[in-house]
């Protein structure tokens, strides 16, 4: 008997030494339901078990501590360090946020879930940004219904939202943009996003239509970029390399670190290309650093820095004959002068958030950006320096007004910009085969431009299903122009201030059934003239110019179907623009602005996205979005020509996107997209149109986990699979000088290929 007892004791003791079990349960963090067949891996021994019917599991472990990796399709990975055998673990997994309706929109003054925002907001998630070859951020915006990007080259793009900005000649205007809350649009309304590396971004939010009640001058809408953050706690390093057609290459290095109170993300990329067309070489280096620190329980500090160095040659636009027969060529004068643009650009920002109480907080940010540019053009050489600085503060308060729960937000923003611009003769014709040669100075101006915004918004929960909100913005804008060039007879020196503008907005949303909302809104917007538009042909400031103003009327529906697997949106809108600013061309690079009339922007937008599970570890997300545009001049007499009733040039009549994203549990992901773009009027008289076109793009990615800490991935794809010949961008109302045909067209790239490899290591 004693021997049996001794043997039992020895067995128990050795059992404790050689292996004990860790027990636990896996549940969904949102509804506490058990997750069956979740994979639990002991990263120390590589042992793997799966959760049972009630989410329970038991895993043998010889020594402690150990680290567990818990994974399940459709959920974010979780990691747990175990230090005791005596504890029964309860582990939660967070669903992957692929359902658009669950995304919290941050770009509105009061953050809210997309489905409950009474406005049309376009989203580009991190997964959306992976669909392309990562060389051109702007191409991603074409996935958003209501947006269209004219893509002349990697550095020659212009965006329009619901047709606003379509008549811009070479760049984007009338649209506000922010990077982590830091303004990117210049004080006079010009915007450049070509040089932002999309691998530095976590998401993009686009508020479509007038947003002046939130951001001031922004008649077309606002684009809000949010920098990437570390994916999980710990330290990670990544290196990616990609090769593409036209001798294009991209190198990217990323590093991140995250702990309970701090996070750090850094990205460096170098993109080079010879380009499809002559005089199309491109060379861009960019770097981003994003850091966040939780300084105490109620306070946090964040820092953002982004720097870009660019030199990009410009092939410019082509006439119809060259566009059809010789699309690879550059415009003759741009090729002969070897015209290009180069600049160094930087952006710095610091934000501090303080939680006064559970219901009251403030975020205050200060920021600065600069741009030093040099651009040899056939008609002159441009040299410019820009420095901007500003601050923004916003208070949020949750309270009750009577018996109604409410959220209140209010604050102010001030922005000041110093800008020096000079032009010089370009003597390229006197120095054969040498490209641009700088000659005598032609002009030298300094501008100081400033604006201030005061804003407020209130959101009321009128009933359980009915919410309403109202907001306003008060804007003051002015500038001073100093003409430093005394060798001509024209003195452009002067001061100008636009009238104070009040921009209100009201909106409401009603939940007609669980997960299904209708909304309506009315919003006001404006955009001030650029300095170039305010100058008369004699070089004097045109003090009679008024800002463009517009009112957007919109109704829409946002809803989930089929157990939240299908998400749909429909929006109907009408925007009436008054005091339409028209840039009349009076020379090769001379324009003068006039208030020429009114435009009507009526349209329908539709979006649907479905998530489904094929089984066997394969999931899919088909999507479709479309925009049908009815944009025309209401009242428009320009140079004694009445264009009332004509279609607005520069924007397609319709756009349609169809796509399918497929993902597998073994690491293979496949992206496919079909895009159809309708014909585009080329001029105000509607005498010329582009042809409609269709594009098909494909991309595949394979990720291989070599070990628990090391991952390697491969990607390859084809753009323009059908080898479509199309106009990727147009110059509206192009004028031919000296008997030459007008150069309306920028040809799109023919069929092209890309492929790359990346490695990732978790320290």
UniProtKB/TrEMBL annotation:
Residue stretches making up the TonB-dependent receptor-like beta-barrel domain: 317-721
Domain annotation TonB-dependent receptor plug: ranges: 114-219
Compartments in which it is found: Cell outer membrane
Keyword Membrane (UniProt): yes
PROSITE patterns to which the protein is assigned, alphabetical: TONB_DEPENDENT_REC_3
Pfam families: Plug, TonB_dep_Rec_b-barrel
Membrane topology value: Multi-pass membrane protein
Keyword tags: Cell outer membrane, Ion transport, Iron, Iron transport, Membrane, Receptor, TonB box, Transmembrane, Transmembrane beta strand, Transport
Top-rank lineage group of the source organism: Bacteria
Family membership noted in the UniProt record: Belongs to the TonB-dependent receptor family.
Name of the protein in question: TonB-dependent receptor
